[in-house]
Amino acid sequence: MSAENNKTPVTPRDALRRAGAVAFWLLVWKLASMAVGSELLLAGPAAVLVRLAQLVPTAAFWSTVGFSLARIAAGFAAAFVLGLLLGLAAHRWHALAELLAPAVSFLKSVPIVCVIVLLLMWVGSVRVSAIAVFLAVFPAIYYSVLEGRAAASPGLGELLRVMGVPGWRRFLANTWQQLLPYLVATCRNACGMAWKAGVAAELIGSPRGSMGERIYQAKLLLETGDLFAWTIVVVALSWACEKAFLALLRATGGWALSASVPRPVAERHQQPVPAAAISLDHVTLGYDGEPVATCNLALAPGSRTVLSDPSGTGKTTLARTVCGLLAPLAGRVEAPVWGELSVQFQDTRLVEAMTAEQNVLLCSAGALSAGEAHALLAELLPEDALGRPVAELSGGQRRRVELARALAHPGTAVVLDEPFASLDAASHKSAAAFVVRHLCGRTLLVASHAPGDAEFLDARPARLGVARRGR
After folding, report:
1. Is the separation of the CB atoms in 471 and 291 below 8 Å?
2. Where is the chain membrane-spanning (predicted)?
3. Nearest to 410 by CA among 265, 280, 307, 305
């Protein structure tokens, strides 16, 4: 999506060069018409322009345009919606993807003319254009959604689930933002494909009152002026529909971000949630059956603990296990469920197009107003950073946004993995004081190899045991 928002502006020189290219091909057209020497076989640009000027003011012209536009738009809309829904479902359920694969592959490869002929026999000429458009566009949208979902990083989605952000808010803030660049790129071609398929179906079926019928009649009567005029109309409508739909599609990114941010709930500061206990009883941590570390740790409600092991010894593995994202290889883990945990992971996980305030509000479960989120962030960030997309912030500023988001979430326990990474000494100490100030009696578990964090946070230090080898 960032590529969409950073297009190179068109300079006067670029516009002049493009106009020159158009003028060149108009000249070629004119010379070809003169060489043929017959307006019946090849009308020139002037004759086509005159005929177009005669057609446009008539009611019959707009009725014909409306007939074709309605059916092509309906087929495109149905293909977009169903391609989006089935693409999302197929990414989630592999069995469905395997079931749909032969049919979608067939639709992608089969010649559209063959499909149109079959449709004419089955549904008649009036409906054929909408169905032809659907069948031409659906595979492109479907595969675009699968590609977008496969390429998306799961990190932000994990964090939002752990924080208890509802599914529809996660979709708007994360999934839709990841899909949007793929859909925009696909729809640049799909809009043109829709008009080609729709008009081709009308040409073959010639339903009364359609643009395809008018083009076919012009061909039969050798009215090349009409044929070129209607062709120009098709090209212009295809271009206009593409621009309008892409503008609408891009705008949904901002609308989705705004809609995903919860409003503050009434009476949100009535009764604080009691702190939770966290227990890891003779736990073996690891990935894919490979042990990383062992742990036997009990955190009483409201306690503060800092895991001070060196880098690579399993602290992140422990944090993911406590958050329910990894199952222990052995032992028992007791921790708050998703929605009751406030978390900051080691890697950056932000909605890049959102501002710092919006990122905080997204995970606040309505516990903060916009003003309160602003005030919270102002303790860590300069004023000019608060209203900008986090993609524009420095690494240290982004880290502090994540820290504020974790403390703003009304969980019963707070898990922070290397929360002070990318911070200088002064910012590090200030951020630690921020955590203490806004912990509000909740249980705190911090994974950090930085010296002094146990003292800064007034927490007890703890260490992991080493399994067969560190990680």
Report:
1. no
2. 21-48, 60-87, 99-122, 128-146, 220-240
3. 265
φ/ψ region of 314 (left if φ > 0, alpha if ψ in -120 to 50, else beta) reads left
Q: Is this structure's pTM higher than 0.90? A: no
Q: What structural domains does the chain harbor?
A: 44-260 (1.10.3720.10), 278-466 (3.40.50.300)
Both tokens assigned to 115: 């499909």
Of 244, 214, 236, the closest CA to residue 77 belongs to 244
Could you report the per-residue pLDDT of 374-422, keeping only the tens digit for each? 999 999 999 999 989 999 999 999 999 999 999 999 999 999 999 998 8
Spatial CB neighbours of 13, under 8 Å, sequence gap ≥ 6: none
Burial class (CB in 10 A: 0-12, 13-18, 19+), 160: buried
CA torsion through residues 94, 100, 105, 108, sign = negative
Quote the CA–CA distance of 79 and 219 in Å, as a whole number: 31
Helix axes 176-205, 224-260, angle to 10 degrees: 160
- Pairing of β 304-307 and β 460-462: parallel
Residues 290-305 have pLDDT tens digits of: 888 888 999 999 999 9
Residues whose CB falls within 8 Å of the CB of residue 233, separated by 6 or more in sequence, listed in order: 52, 55, 65, 211
**For residue 3, what pLDDT is reported?**
42
What is the rounded radius of gyration, in angstroms, for the C-alpha atoms of the chain? 30
Q: What is the pLDDT of residue 41?
A: 76
Secondary structure (DSSP) of 167-182? HHHHIIIIIHHHHHHH
Q: Tens digits of per-residue pLDDT, 316-374?
A: 999 999 999 999 999 999 999 999 999 999 999 999 999 999 999 999 998 899 999 99
Contacts of residue 184, defined as CB under 8 A and 6 or more positions apart, other chains included, come to: 1, 4, 246, 249, 250
* 177: nearest Cα among 77, 243, 258, 81: 258
Distance separating alpha carbons of residues 112 and 38, to the nearest angstrom: 33
Q: Does residue 443 sit in helix, strand or coil?
A: strand
d(C-alpha 208, C-alpha 315), whole Å? 71
Query: Which spans in 363-394 are helix H?
Result: 370-378
d(CA 414, CA 342): 5
Six-digit token pair at 455? 């003292």
What b/e sequence results for 212-247 when a residue is b if at least 16 CB atoms lie within 10 Å of its CB, and e otherwise?
A: bbbbbebeeeebbbbbbbbbebbeebbeebbeebbe
Helix (H/G/I), strand (E/B), else coil: 449: coil
Residue type, 181: P
CA distances from 447 to 79, 345, 375, 398 (A): 48, 10, 27, 18
